Amino acid sequence: MASADKLINTDVPEKDVFAFHFLQSLSNLRKQNPFDTPDQKNYRVRKIKKAAYVSMARAAGGSSRLWSRALLRRAAKDDNKIVRFSRRKRKVTWKISSKRRRSNQRAPVVEEAAERLRNLVPGGGGMETSKLMEETAHYIKCLSMQVKVMQCLVDGLHYNKN
Amino acid sequence: MSNRRSRQSSSASRISDDQMIDLVSKLRQFLPEIHERRRSDKVSASKVLQETCNYIRKLHREVDNLSDRLSQLLDSVDEDSPEAVVIRSLLM
């Protein structure tokens, strides 16, 4: 019964965890640069977008997922920071080189679609197809949570303004 | 069966095809607009993957959109009570 071996867990934290991390990021942004100059609009938008992704990765468990690790590493590289993740006790190394990955025996049409998915999911490039599916499921759940949080915030601020 | 298992463990621990099907069906649950197919047990994996890509792109666009609106709203809000109310309502 090979299929009963591994438990594949795609649970994500509750919405308030995402909300908390995002609000924390936003308040940090506020402290760093007060939003005063109007010509820096694009810069502000990019900062907020980045805060959204970083806080989502943190809320989702930081280093416990391949996609969140890749996202945080990429964000830190943009800031020229060095990110160090603690060595985790890993039974299986999921990241394999693309040369080995090519020998994956799934149907070519599936592999082609999986390749497009790899470009969308952070860190997807080094993942094997089966791991990619698992990471994608978790990534989608977290993304939709993040979108809900942001929508709530926008609605709340909009309502308060009027 | 045992042959299959030993071959599996030697090659980077690939999961079996059953698990693959299971994962794909799990992915289907998260996709909001997928249509019910007649042969729902034999999932069209590439179709699911395609829908997944579209869904991810859509979510990325929404994040962009909402970031834009947030940036507009955040700089026009005063410091004190409106924000506190919003924050409280979010964390309830």
Automatic annotation (TrEMBL), chain A:
It comes from Arabidopsis suecica (Swedish thale-cress). Its main location: nucleus. It is found in: Nucleus. Keywords: DNA-binding, Nucleus, Transcription, Transcription regulation. GO terms for cellular component: nucleus. InterPro entries: bHLH_AtIBH1-like, IBH1-like, IBH1_N. This is Helix-loop-helix DNA-binding domain superfamily. GO terms for biological process: regulation of DNA-templated transcription. GO terms for molecular function: DNA binding. Signal peptide: none annotated. Residues 18-77 form the IBH1-like N-terminal domain. It holds the Pfam family IBH1_N.
Automatic annotation (TrEMBL), chain B:
One of its GO terms (cellular component) is nucleus. This is Myc-type basic helix-loop-helix (BHLH) domain. Residues 4-59 form the BHLH domain. It comes from Arabidopsis suecica. GO terms for biological process: regulation of DNA-templated transcription; regulation of growth. Keywords: Growth regulation, Nucleus, Transcription, Transcription regulation. InterPro entries: bHLH_dom (IPR011598), PRE (IPR044293). It is found in: Nucleus. GO terms for molecular function: protein dimerization activity. Its main location: nucleus. Pfam families: bHLH_ILI.
